[in-house]
Amino acid sequence: xxxxxxxxxxxxxxxxxxxxxxxxxxxxxxxxxxxxxxxxxxxxxxxxxxxxxxxxxxxxxxxxxxxxxxxxxxxxxxxxxxxxxxxxxxxxxxxxxxxxxxxxxxxxxxxxxxxxxxxxxxxxxxxxxxxxxxxxxxxxxxxxxxxxxxxxxxxxxxxxxxxxxxxxxxxxxxxxxxxxxxxxxxxxxxxxxxxxxxxxxxxxxxxxxxxxxxxxxxxxxxxxxxxxxxxxxxxxxxxxxxxxxxxxxxxxxxxxxxxxxxxxxxxxxxxxxxxxxxxxxxxxxxxxxxxxxxxxxxxxxxxxxxxxxxxxxxxxxxxxxxxxxxxxxxxxxxxxxxxxxxxxxxxxxxxxxx
Length: 354
What we know:
Blueprint: H1 17-32, E1 39-40, E2 49-50, E3 61-69, H2 73-80, H3 86-100, E4 104-114, H4 119-136, E5 139-147, E6 157-168, E7 183-188, H5 197-207, E8 215-216, E9 221-222, H6 223-227, H7 235-244, E10 247-252, H8 257-261, E11 270-275, E12 280-281, H9 283-292, H10 296-302, E13 307-313, H11 318-327, E14 332-340, E15 345-348, E16 352-353
Parallel strand pairs: 4-5, 11-15, 12-16
Antiparallel strand pairs: 1-2, 3-6, 4-6, 7-13, 7-14, 8-9, 10-13, 11-14
């Protein structure tokens, strides 16, 4: 392929500028759906603009920032050719990290690297990002589509995002507020969320040889549909909980599971004690464990095991916290407490599988 002068063109090198422009037009309505009053301008500029005079409603605002991706869950989306949910996962990974310190997510930017720009596929991905932003209450103020021909296969892509939030300086949540006697409330996950997919692929796709189209009775749908169930965006529910109940800390249960994440909000002289039977585990975890012969300790290090987010609250507020969370359509239960110890988490009992 040559340009109008007969010379080699950018398109012949594999970069489709026109396709990228078309993708932007296809995603425009989805991006506009995330708009907040503070957003200035629209997509198409070199940067996103956000009117920070809105922060005057805070007394001493701190900015919080988080960045993440979706990991190898993208391999499932690409093989199953379903791309409208991983954008939700992307937002959940960053927005729910912001909420852990009590910050309100304000705006987000995304980055899509791909082997070839397929406008409808890019628009589908961004539609998922926009859906996640609406769920989190943050604006999608910009992003980047990077085409990498010769470096990535045509159907491959990777996602990343960064988000910014704000929180009052004297209302930052975390280990400084956690005390002995606090109650631990587990907020249920929708499944695997966005961590542990390398182990899932190893067990179910490689060793067991299952196809993504395979119907699994325990799921009531195909394996691919189950594995692409999007991560819950907890942001709005958690912020409402902060407003209505005395929350001391949140834990976003991602890579490392409960044992790896709960100690991040524990003082050095306190332990978290949780009863596994206090919440229900989605069946996908039991499938992975039994089919792969994966030890329970390893499962708990790799997966959320049905606990997508954890709230640490004053014991007197535990029941009220559960009511607030269930009012948002979430599964929540009091699952443990904080007691004197050495900064570790102890899991007792056996899981109940749905």
